[in-house]
Amino acid sequence: MCPERSWILDHFDRGEWRADLRAAIVRAGLLAALWWVLSGGAWSSWLFGIPAIAAALYLGFRLGSGGWRWTFAGAVRFLPFFLWRSLSGGIDVAWRSLSPSLPLDPDLIEYEFRLPETPARVFMSNAISLLPGTLSAEYADEKVRVHTLLRGPGAVRELERLEERVAGLFGLEMASRGDRA
């Protein structure tokens, strides 16, 4: 018997398929709602939408979540913070491009993570690029290199605030700066 087949049978024997079925139904519903919004509700788009949703479900379960477990309370706190910072960042960058007199003092800084897990670190590294005047330039396990439009402690404070929100989103405790040395 192939090892993959035995894993599937073990999965059914332990009753884990019920939780997976519930998760698949919820994910399929969310993906279908997203497809409906993105396609403008066009019925003809479902010819491509259904296979795309099925492929996303298959890959999601096949690859696993990799620890991407968000807390509801953390998501409620993270979303307004992130939306506001993304909007204000877009306005700031647009304003700077239209007003050459505004200061620009670019810098490349290394930010050492206090987050304990890789999925949260990857999420934060991607979220950095959508915040005001920052771009995640290079990601390593313990650090991320960030390009900023303004040199100074403000960028580091912004990254610390983001990291606190990401920790809350994932329900994680962060290490103190002294624990990383």
TrEMBL record:
Its main location: membrane. Keywords: Cell membrane, Membrane, Transmembrane, Transmembrane helix. Pfam families: MNHE. The keyword ATP-binding does not apply. GO terms for cellular component: plasma membrane. The chain crosses the membrane at residues 21-38, 44-61. It is found in: Cell membrane. The keyword Membrane applies. This is Cation transporter. The lineage of its organism: Bacteria, Bacillati, Actinomycetota, Rubrobacteria, Rubrobacterales.
